[in-house]
Every structure is written in C-alpha cells, then in structure tokens.
Design a protein that fits this description.
It contains 4 helices and 6 strands. It has about 220 residues and is an alpha+beta fold. It folds into 2 domains: about 80 residues; about 130 residues, Alpha-Beta Plaits, CATH 3.30.70.60. Strands 1, 2, 3, 4, 5 and 6 form a 6-stranded antiparallel sheet that branches. Strand 3 and strand 4 form a beta hairpin. Helix 2 packs antiparallel against helix 4. The longest helix is centred in the N-terminal third of the chain and has 82 residues.
Length: about 220
C-alpha cells in the first residue's frame, strides 16, 4: 500500500515538474518578446536621434554657408563699387564695345537699346549707330541691379556688318567672334553676356561669306 502511494507521488511530482517547465518556457518566451520589443523601441529611438542630429548638422552647415555667402557677397559689393565705372559719360561703354569689334577684325552695324522713358513718356526701342549713344539715353533705359544699391544694368543688342561689299578680312569669322566675346567678358563695364544667336551668311552663288549674329549683353553703370 505504501509502495502504491509512492508511485502516485512520483507521478504527481513529474506532472508538477512538467508544469513548472512549461511555465518557465512561457515566461522565457514572454521575456524574450518583451526584450525584443524594448530593443526595437530603443533602436527606433536611436534612429530618431540620429535623424535629429543629422538635421541639426545640416542646419549648422546651412548657417555656416549662409554666413560665408554673406561675407562673399559683401566682398563682391565692395568690388563692384570699386570696379564698375561711375563716370557720367556712359556712352564710352558703347564706344568701347565698338573698339572691341575693331580689335577682333570686324565692324558693328547697330546697337539696340530698350525702350526709353526720357521726357516722362515711354518710347519704342530704337537703333543707334555703333559709334554714338547719349549718356541720358543709357541711364533712362537702365534697371537697378537687385541687392546692390546704386548699381544699374542696361541691356544692349548688338549686330555686325555683313554686307556683301565688305572686304573678306572685315567679315565676321568664328574665331573673330570668339575674340570679340572674350574682350566683352573680360571688360569691367560689360560683364555679362545674356544671349547670342549665330547664323551663317551666304553669297548669291551659295558660297559661305560670313557669320551673322545677334548678341545681347548687360552693361553695368553707377550714375
């Protein structure tokens, strides 16, 4: 009878141990999932902190770049005030452009200005000779340059002579055009070429004679 009771006690003990083992497994799995969840949350928090840190770094870099640009533009403003001519005879700029064409080996046909507001009324844009232009007409057609007080720009449209009667050495070639553009870009008065359209010109027999072009530039003045 005692032996029978001992077997039953052993069975009960085994069941208890199995139950405890199962409970331990459940607890282990629960702790594992809880740990993974906490680790994932910590990882996401770390990612968010890195993103915020990167955003702050970008803002600091942008601020440093902005400060650098302010210094740079301040320097350009100083240079512009020292380099851009402030003489009142702004027609000298137009004459200089004509001299550049002569140095390059060809002649200019016209220089066209924007509409003028002289006399308090707007007139249509007109063509003037490549050799003359009044200072008043230049200033009346000038536009203020944004960001630089006292600096104005005037857009000029330039065309060359391509008459059939011109000698061959006075016709516009590609190399002459490049020389002309280089002289303009390196001049302190005419610092910006905005647009150019080039087309070939042919003789009556179909042979090539020269290049024709329409050049738009901005000259800068400080009246």
């Amino acid at each position: 009878m005692k032996f029978l009771n001992f077997k039953l006690d052993s069975q009960h003990l085994r069941f208890v141990l199995l139950g405890l083992l199962g409970l331990a497994g459940v607890v282990f799995i629960g702790i594992m999932f809880l740990g993974l969840s906490m680790l994932s949350a910590k990882s996401q928090k770390m990612v968010n902190l890195k993103v915020q840190s990167s955003a702050v770094d970008n803002q600091l870099n942008s601020l440093a770049l902005a400060k650098k640009q302010i210094k740079q533009y301040g320097y350009f403003k100083t240079v512009a005030s020292e380099v851009i001519p402030n003489d009142k005879d702004q027609a000298a700029a137009v004459l200089q452009i004509n001299q550049f064409a002569s140095q390059a080996g060809f002649l200019l046909q016209t220089i066209t200005f924007p509409a003028s507001n002289l006399g308090g009324s707007s007139s249509a844009s007109g063509q003037v000779s490549a050799q003359t232009a009044s200072p008043a007409s230049l200033l009346s057609q000038a536009l203020p340059v944004s960001g630089i007080n006292g600096l104005y720009s005037v857009q000029l449209t330039i065309t060359p002579q391509t008459d059939v009667n011109l000698p061959a050495d006075e016709q516009v070639t590609y190399s002459k055009l490049l020389d002309f553009l280089s002289l303009i870009e390196n001049n302190q008065r005419t610092a910006q070429i905005s647009q150019i359209v080039i087309k070939p010109v042919y003789n009556g027999d179909g042979s090539f004679r020269a290049f024709d072009f329409t050049l738009e530039i901005n000259i800068f003045i400080r009246p």
